[in-house]
Amino acid sequence: MVFEELCEVCGRYTQIKFCKIRNIKVCYECCINCNKRNNCEARVWFKPLIPSKTLRGEKGQIRI
Question: Which pTM value belongs to this model?
């Protein structure tokens, strides 16, 4: 599961996953840049999994 929380590596508030190897919460950028990535079996996501809210609905042009 993915949640919006604080990444314990870079300190940004974004979508995170729990890293089972390091036992910390990480964002996807920190996950793919990890030096232990070769030993990890966890999937890495590259797109936002939680849709961003807009003023004009799902396909709106203006993001909040």
Answer: 0.59
